[in-house]
Every structure is written in structure tokens, then in C-alpha cells.
Amino acid sequence: MKKQTVFAGAIAIALGFGGSAFAGEQVAYTIVEDGIPTALSVEAGNVERGRDAMINRKQGNCLACHAISVLSDQPFHGEVGPTLDGVAGRWDEPQLRLILVNSKEVFEDTIMPAFYKAEGYNRVAKKFDGKSILSAQQVEDVIAFLQTLK
């Protein structure tokens, strides 16, 4: 069984079961087997906020690479990544969380960015240094939305 604790970012905070990230701060998480079983935030994910993060070009921007039928009202679906239709039937919640947090842990050669990683990059603009693309709560919100795609 693969078990690995990751401190995502320069400032890792441990807040017991889950936690909540604030600007620049990251919550420690543990990879067990092929997923992250524990939520990154205390508050449950919100489907509507997850949808909004996925279509926001400055946050998830998932449509840049993925097609999603339920978001057909949004323009410019990508074809680089697989369709997200039915993604909740292919991956369980811990697996989806790991793929979103750092997809290279699952798909070594992917071009999908790590949405909850704040260090280990080269040539990062100062305003983004030490920050992840999504907050812990946004990760959980996106997971909540993805789980509706059965």
C-alpha cells in the first residue's frame, strides 16, 4: 500500500481532519494508494462553486482542455484532455482529488497542471510564487461538481 504525506507548499498547516487554506497557505494531505481520501477543507464541496471554478479562465479553466456536455452553454471546449462526461463513473472521490491536486501522481506524462501545488516550479512570476492555482476549498468544490458527472 502506497502511503505518502505531502506538504503542498512552503507553509503547510495541519488543522486536524481536513483544514482550510488561505491565500498562499496549503493544507497537508496524505496520498493513500491511488487517491487522497481526506477532504482538504472542513466545509463540504459546493457543486455550483465547483462549476464556476471549472469554467473560470483564471481558476480551473477546465474547458481549455476538456469537453463537458453539461457545460454546453459555455464556449470553447478543448479536445486535448479526455471528456469529463462520466468522470464520476471512472474515478472515485479520493482518485478525483489526487488527479486534481497533482495529476502527475496518477498520469506521469500528463500536461494537466497540478491545481493544488505551490512549489517545485521553475521561473514563476513573483505574484504566483508559493501559491497554488486553486485553494483547498476550491478543490473540494470542483470535486463536488465532478461527482455529478456520472
What does this structure look like?
This protein has 150 residues and is an alpha+beta fold. It has a domain of 104 residues: Cytochrome c-like domain (Cytochrome Bc1 Complex, Chain D, domain 2, Orthogonal Bundle). Helices cover 23% and strands 8% of the residues. The protein has a two-stranded antiparallel ribbon. Strands 2-3 form a two-stranded parallel ribbon. α1 packs across α4 and α3 crosses α4. The two termini are 28 Å apart.
- C-alpha geometry: globular
The CATH topology of the domain at 43-146 is given as Cytochrome Bc1 Complex, Chain D, domain 2
Q: Give unreliable regions as ranges.
A: 7-23
Query: Would you identify the CATH H-level superfamily of the domain at 43-146?
Result: Cytochrome c-like domain
Q: Into which percentage range does the β-strand content fall?
A: 5-15%
Main sheet? Answer: 2 strands, antiparallel
Helical fraction equals 10-25%
Structural class, by secondary structure, is: alpha+beta
DSSP summary, beta strand count: 4
Mean pLDDT: 86
Topology:
Blueprint: E1 3-6, E2 12-13, E3 26-27, E4 29-32, H1 47-55, H2 87-90, H3 93-102, H4 136-146
Parallel strand pairs: 2-3
Antiparallel strand pairs: 1-4
Helix pairs in contact: 1-4, 3-4
Short description:
With 150 residues, this protein is α+β, with helices and mostly antiparallel strands. It has helices at residues 47-55, 87-90, 93-102, 136-146; strands at 3-6, 12-13, 26-27, 29-32.
Name its key features.
150 residues; Cytochrome Bc1 Complex, Chain D, domain 2; 8% strand
